[in-house]
Amino acid sequence: MGYxxxxxxxxxxxxxxxxxKSLNLxxxxxxxxxxxxxxxxxxxxxxxxxxxxxxxxxGNIRVEGEAIEDKEPYERxxxxxxxxxxxxxxxxxxxxxxxxxxxxxxPKDEVQERVLHMMDLVQLGGFEKRYxxxxxxxxxxxxxxxxxxxxxxxxxxxxxxxxxxxxxxxxQMQLELKRLQKKLNITFIYVTHDQEEALTMSDRIAIMHxxxxxxxxxxxxxxxxxxxxxxxxxxxxxxxxxxxVADVKDGQVQVTIENGIISAKDFMSKSGQYVTISVRxxxxxxxxxxxxxxxxxxxxxxxxxxxSIIKCVVELPNGNEIRIERLAGQELPELGTxxxxxxxxxxAVVIHGQEQEMLRAMDSIQFS
Amino acid sequence: xEDRHRxxxxxxxTLPAIVMVGPVTxxxxxxxxxxxxxxxxxxFCSIDDNYNVVFQFTWKNYVRLANADYMKxxxxxxxxxLITTVLSLLIGYPFAYIISRSDSRWKKLLYxxxxxxxxxxxxxxxxxxxxxxxxxxxxNTALQALHIVKEPVEFLFQRxxxxxxxxxxLIPFMILPLYTAIEKVxxxxxxxxxxxxxxxxxxxxxxxxxxxxxxxxxxxxMVFIPCLGYFFVSEILGGGNSDVIGNLIERQFQSGNNxxxxxxxxxxxxxxxxxxxxxxxxxxGNMEDLGM
Lengths: 368, 292
Description:
The complex is a heterodimer.
Chain A: E1 3-14, E2 17-28, E3 32-36, H1 43-51, E4 58-63, E5 66-67, E6 78-81, H2 93-103, H3 108-121, H4 137-149, E7 155-159, H5 167-184, E8 187-192, H6 195-201, E9 204-209, E10 212-217, H7 219-224, H8 229-234, E11 239-249, E12 252-257, E13 260-265, E14 274-279, E15 285-287, E16 298-306, E17 309-315, E18 321-327, E19 338-342, E20 349-351, H9 354-362
Parallel strand pairs in A: 3-8, 3-9, 6-7, 7-8
Antiparallel strand pairs in A: 1-2, 1-4, 4-5, 9-10, 11-12, 11-14, 12-13, 14-20, 15-19, 16-17, 16-19, 17-18
Chain B: H1 2-42, E1 46-47, E2 53-54, H2 60-65, H3 68-101, H4 104-119, H5 122-133, H6 138-145, H7 159-184, H8 187-195, H9 200-211, H10 213-229, H11 231-237, H12 245-253, H13 259-282
Antiparallel strand pairs in B: 1-2
């Protein structure tokens, strides 16, 4: 598969704000790629640079191999679904959806046929003569999507399109968007700060943090093998342990943390290196006695029932809390008892990198 | 028990209501309603041989105003107002657009450039034009010094000069509502239009103009209506062929000393104004844009 959109060393600087930092990103044709991150991470700016509303300070953007960074938005074969929908309030739904085709001087008959077909596709048949102010949020959303898709763009850019909808409608629209994308086989670049949305819809997720692309991968890769501490904490719930490698043997590391020793499977680390270990709550295990690999005691503090899942909150000696998650009915320790948490070596993810070096520099880890 | 409750409520709601609404109502009655009624009554009064107002009902004033000479001046006044409005719109719209699209530092400066003359007495500013355009004025002196003309050019006392003065005086009334309307246009609509393949000029005509229509209406109204009454502009800058309705009214109250006739003219002007405001409302204008 070829790359439909390529960003090469793209920077965006507003005055003193470095919003996007030498971003490299290749989007495959026909995929659903999500730019995920908290607000201010540069994801929307990245999208706006692809659309042409912002100019990159440095770097190249290519669509189907052709450089587009000097092209005006109206010259680009990409369309945008705006967060605020941006429907033209003085035009009917029909005229809103037909706008792009009229600009391209498509013959009237064809415009009509395509608009009506598109309206059926997004289940808005019969709404031709209404005005945007007469529609609900979900309906406006569909108009915005139809108005962009009717132009058969090479890439559809979506800027938090479901942000303004309530939870139930959002879930429904997530599935519908995914269905549309598969059906029309158009590349979607989707911006959101909602990690669940990203995990449900995307073929691949690009996680951005402070203008940097932290990790690009499938939802499974991102969930199971987070590349940075930020990714581990941002996607799903996790237990994080910062510490220094004490011992390496047979593809396994022992790490000294504030409260004792933990272990994980790892071939990369060297003795003395600072690392972060991330373990998902559902992978946590516990027993009554310490072993040489796991020496941290923890007191069971609380239970949280979330539907069919029970979250058990346990407290480490330094006051940090970690979570153990089980399906209802499975065995869990009693409240107030002391347990020794552990996990299967391969269930822990060892993260090395700049952040861990920074931790060392800040000397923020106190050893007992 | 219940009655006493009600009493209590009644008292506690009425007093604040009177305190809050009372002064405003009093002001409106004294400063708007009473004078208006006075003018209306006056317009049906007669005068005696010494031009004293006599409270005797007559239609005569209105009948006199239907005369062809007056009709000519109404027409001329409407024409001047129309030309002034169109010119103000053509000059004011791009200006308002530029202000609203400039970055904040320039925006403040440009906005002040509109506001400061607006705060200055227009009579003084119109005299300024007279000094500038007069036969011994700066412009003529400069033109002669540069040997572009030999004799002073007669700039003053033309209908065009009146229109110039009107546009100059009234253009802030055009720019301010336009600016407000343009500011309200959501920038993402312009982006959406561009995203869908529209060049800037098409976006301007298809999105910006329709969405600022209410500002255009109110700007036009706020220029057109005062233009019918700004007698001092045509008096100072214009010649005999540029009288507006305001001049007629002024003359009846001053040199003509015929107050009932002036009052009738005023009533006609007020009626024309109300009709225009009604049309504005019908055309979809927003009364708030007129400050109502």
